[in-house]
Structures are given as structure tokens and as C-alpha cells.
Write the C-alpha cells for this entry.
Amino acid sequence: MYTVLLNINVFLYTPALISSAKYPFSHFIIQTLQQLTGGNPYALAAVFVLMLIVQAIMFNTLVNSNKLFENETNLPAFAYVLLLSMFNGYVFLSAPFLANFALIIALIKVLEAYHNKSFTQPFDAGFAIGIASLFYLPSAVLILFVFVALSIIRVFKWKEWLVTILGFFMPYFILGTVFIVFKPNELDNIITAYLNPNAVNTLPIYYIEIFVKMTVLVSIMLLTMFFFQKQFFKKMVKTRNMLTAFIYLMAISILTFLLADGFSVAPITLTIPSVAVFLSFAFIEIEKEWMNEIIHLAIIAIVLFFSYF
């Protein structure tokens, strides 16, 4: 209900879909959704909200299963939905939003590497980032996060990095093989479309709105970092290492803005998982409940104001 209420605006004013031929996987998903729904805006909005709920559940399960906080909580899902809803008009069924499914799976595999010392997790994490890059090419830079996170979570081994790289290129190898076998004449067109930008239906950008929301997001980052560093050495080594990995995810995901074609707000989706973790952390560590409520209501006020006015 919380997710639906925060995203009612996409039902009332459904954003135009961005059909990008540069990212064939995203292009295919968007075309398929349009065909299945007949282009009905309410159906597309419902699909977006359902996908957001699924991502939030996946993310919440990731945090609780790795015991990043002392007790199990729904705060990670709550923070994820709240933060992403701030930008729902800009990330609506966008390529980065679709790539976020693969990013969350990569996070699951990276954190699993703490308990499992085999090469399976590094390979799977690289594979997931490779899938994410097929949906949104700039997300390929997140392979750097996998390298850094593995070095933090477990003892560095160069073989793990090699396995991660092999996993990253495996989706490209599989996709290329499928096209060579079944549609050899279309392979050149796919490669050309993937490497050359050709985005249509570009959404209008309201810079005052973006400035306010980015200011709020940066303020949240600074606030949560304050509480994080204050409590950092009080946490177990495992928790410290995993939360440190999320700091690097936050920093590296920002690089996707530099690799995007032109100015776009959509890559903000890739930063949301890391910010959501630390916002949840801050909500837990802030002892005064009224302060939590002020932060929560302030974010909701901004979401609602720019959604309808």
C-alpha cells in the first residue's frame, strides 16, 4: 500500500516510455510490455509499481539474510521505495531501472562470498553485472564495485578477479552465440544499435525539481554517513566490511552519470540500493523517534509536492 500510495502519480500522469535502441534488452522488454498491455498507461504504471515492490522485497531479503542490522527489519524495503519514488517520473520503466534487478542479484552474490570461499559467487556476480550492462551499458562500470567488494569481504585472490571477468563477458558470449546460430544476419545490427546511441521519447527535465531532489538526496547521504562513521567501530567486523562495500557501491554507481548519453536522471536508480541501506542504518541509530518522523515526512512532502504541482 505504501508503494502504491507514493506512486499514484504514475497512474494519473503516466510518463512516456523511453524506447532506446542502444540497449536491446531494455528495448525488447519495453516493446513486449507495450504489446502485452496494448499500450494502456494504467497497466504500464501497474507493471512499474509491481516491479518496484519486487525489487524492494529482493533488497530487503538481501539485507536481512546477511544480518547487516541487529534485528530483522523492513526498513531497507521502506527506504528503497521511498527514495526511488522521489524520481519515479524519470526512472519509469527505464533501462537503469530494469538493470537494477541484476544489480541486486550481484549484491546478493557479493555478500554471499563472505561465507562461501568458492569461485561461484565471484562468477555469478560478474555474470549479473554483465546482464545489467545488456540492459544499460553504463552499468558495466559496476564491475569495479565487484572487484573492490570482494577485496573487502574476503582475502584478495587474483584468480577470483579473473573468474569475475569471465562471468561478466559470459552473457555477451551466450547472446552472440545465439545470434550466430539462429539469426546471423541480425548480429551486426544488434552490435551497431548497442554501441551507437539512438534514444527516442526523451523525457523533459525540470531542473528546479531535480536540484531540490538531488539536494535532499545528498543531504540524506551526508546525514547517514555521519551516523555510520559514529557507529562504525561498534559493529562486528563482518558488518563493517559489508557496509564499507556499500560505500564503494555508492561512489562507483555515481560514475554511471558520466557514461550516460547526455544528461539523464535515470541512472540515479543504481545509487538507490546503497543510499537505502544507510538511510535504514540512520533510522535505526537515531534514538529520537521524532527526528526520524521529521526526515520521513520531509521526504514524503517533497515526493508529493513535485508529483502533483
Remarks:
- The chain has a mean pLDDT of 82.
- The two ends are 22 Å apart (CA to CA).
- DSSP finds 16 helices and no strands in the chain.
- Residues 10 and 45 are 6 Å apart (CA to CA).
